[in-house]
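Students often ask why we bother encoding 3D structure as a string. The short answer is that it lets us treat folding as translation between two languages. Here is a chain of 189 residues written in the first language.
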Amino acid sequence: MSCLNGIGLSMMQTTISSSMIEWFEGRRAVIMSRLEVAFGLGCLTIPLCESRLIDAHAWRFGFWIVGILALLLSFVCTLIPIKPELNVNEGPRDAYTRPPDMTGTGSRLLFMTLFLFMILLYVGLESCFNNFLPAIFISYFGQSGNVASLTVTVFWTAMVIGRTLTGWAIRKVSYSSFLFRVLALLYYS
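And here it is in the second language, the structure alphabet:
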């Protein structure tokens, strides 16, 4: 079931993200940062609910809740129009970013390699680290299951705050300047 859940989640997230990128030209970074915040809010809410269910010795209901929410979300997705009817060009715009110069095959290969490495690193850290937090807190700190499951909520709360601040920053500076500053911050911390 966990494997099927992961496959379903990745298909849903990819479909929604691709649609947002297609619909909101000129506002893609702003919309994606808001979408990431929405994903993060869902990720911090479910462990919080699961913690309450564990505390009430009803943890098995968590699977039913997630399943029902998934079915509800699948139904709602059938109601979303293929082409939005609202004016998608209203609202905050992305900061101007000049496209990278990728005229040669070597620069394209380097760009794609760096991009894939970044995705591998980001998804690996985001998807694996937070899933092991409860086990770490149970095994090494002696916490109960309901308290340990709250560590995932704390993790996702930090992610939502970071993603919200990223959404603000992406409207002020270009992508290259933003990425350079983030890398410099990581290097010097």
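Translate back mentally: Residues 105-141 form the longest helix (37 residues). Keep this in mind for the problem set.
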